[in-house]
Design brief:
The chain is α+β, with helices and mostly antiparallel strands. Helix content is about 50%, strand content about 15%. Strands 1-2-5-3-4 form a five-stranded antiparallel beta sheet, with helices on one face. Strands 7-9-10-12-11 form a five-stranded mixed beta sheet, covered by helices on one side. Strands 6-8 form a two-stranded antiparallel sheet. α1 packs antiparallel against α4 and α4 runs antiparallel to α6. The chain is rod-shaped, with a radius of gyration of 43 Å.
Length: about 425
């Protein structure tokens, strides 16, 4: 847990650091783009002034005629009379030449009326722009001058930095996904700890009564009256054997539930399939005398499996079919064999499973929400254990609903 916390913190710091660096780079790129725009505008307006002085006897002003009043507002001192149409033509020509393709508007100072006269709004994208009536402030101590305003300069600069903003937005999304993932991992970790505590408590609660049953059964088996009665001795031996098996079975399941990643040790042996199935069925019928189990298919099949876990697998499947049946349980075990595989179909006449829930029946601690589940005691570990055993043997398992009633669980065993 400590290592996980360190990795989470380092990952979060790294992601936030990258995001901050990206935002700083974007801000710096915007400033650079703004300076480039100012420089291009300055040079273009200088060229406009030169064009206005061509063909006149006047000399260019000795001082810089261009003053930037604000981010989007420029004053150009010409010191010479000029025609509005000629000014507009030169402005459009030079701005296009320097790739300044954002909208602009201009106004000229009229010395007779002592006010700024609005010229025009020039759009490079809209052929029929709306008329604007923007106020251009006067500038003192100048007579022949004009003003330029770029109303969309900020959005124009932002559009030139689309890549940077898309990248920043992508990083923000990544950060949000990372934070959500971390939150989910922490929540899952909490749930795992709760499950572990629950399992530890359940282990203790199971082992105590089982130990008492084994002690009492062994004492009972050693009594002379029991040993003289073959029938009683047989049932006593069954109690002892099944208690031992149950004890080992609980130990295996609970160890399995503690860790999904810890593989169980399989002791593979060649076992006769039908006799093993019959043994499980006989033990099951001692507990449920009314259950009918039919084994169909070849009788001489053998397979490589762990006898203990395979027996428990079959027991779990039969037990589930019996528990979730509202009539007399009838179970059919169909055995099929071909050159590539052995197929086992466990079909029952139970209450069945809805199509939306059938894909979850092999999940750990999952119990189907229905009225029968409320009547049946369990922890949702049986079919999870079956799935785990199949995975350890490299077998495939799947569940489907029968056409009439109940479900069929198919196990495919490659040869």
């Amino acid at each position: 847990m400590k290592k996980l916390n360190i990795i989470i913190v380092l990952g979060l710091i790294a992601t936030i650091g990258i995001l901050i660096a990206q935002l700083l780079w974007t801000k710096e790129a915007f400033n650079i783009e703004e300076k480039k725009f100012t420089q291009k505008t300055h040079i273009a307006l200088l060229e406009v002034v030169k064009k206005l002085y061509q063909g006149t006897n006047s000399e260019l002003p000795s001082e810089n005629p261009i003053k930037k009043i604000s981010n989007d507002y420029y004053i150009v001192n010409v010191e010479n009379d000029f025609e509005p149409k000629i000014l507009e033509y030169y402005l459009k020509t030079e701005f296009e030449k320097f790739n300044i393709t954002t909208d602009f508007e201009y106004a000229m100072y009229n010395c007779q009326s002592d006010e700024m006269v609005y010229g025009n709004y020039i759009s490079f994208t809209d052929k029929n722009p709306e008329k604007h009536t923007v106020h251009f402030p006067k500038h003192k101590n100048l007579v022949y001058y004009f003003a330029i305003r770029f109303p969309n300069e900020t959005s124009y600069l932002f559009s030139s930095l689309r890549f940077w903003f898309i990248l920043s937005f992508a990083l923000i999304i990544i950060l949000l996904v990372y934070v959500y993932s971390i939150y989910t991992i922490i929540q899952q970790k909490k749930y795992s700890e709760l499950q572990r505590d629950f399992i530890n408590n359940m282990t203790h609660e199971f082992k105590t009564p089982l130990s008492s049953i084994l002690l009492a059964s062994n004492y009972l088996h050693n009594q002379e009256l029991i040993q003289k009665d073959k029938k009683l001795e047989k049932y006593t031996n069954i109690i002892i054997d099944q208690s031992k098996k149950l004890n080992s079975h609980i130990e295996q399941i609970l160890n399995l539930a503690k860790s999904d990643n810890a593989p169980m040790k399989m002791e593979l042996q060649t076992i006769a399939l039908v006799p093993t199935l019959n043994e499980v069925v006989e033990n099951m019928q001692l507990k449920h005398p009314n259950v009918a189990v039919h084994i169909q298919g070849p009788k001489e099949i053998k397979l490589l499996a762990d006898p203990f876990h395979f027996t428990n697998l079959v027991y779990n499947l039969l037990d589930n079919s019996i528990k979730y049946c509202d009539t007399t349980p009838i179970i059919t075990i169909q055995i099929m064999e071909d050159a590539q595989q052995i197929t086992l179909d466990f079909s029952d006449n139970g209450i069945g499973i809805t199509s939306k829930n059938i894909n979850f029946i092999f999940d750990k601690f999952y119990r189907i929400p229905n009225s029968k589940s409320n009547e049946v005691n369990g922890f949702g570990l049986g079919l999870y254990y079956v799935k785990k055993i199949c995975s350890q043997h490299h077998w495939k398992i799947a569940a489907t609903n029968n056409i009439a009633k109940g479900i069929t669980i198919r196990i495919i065993i490659p040869k």
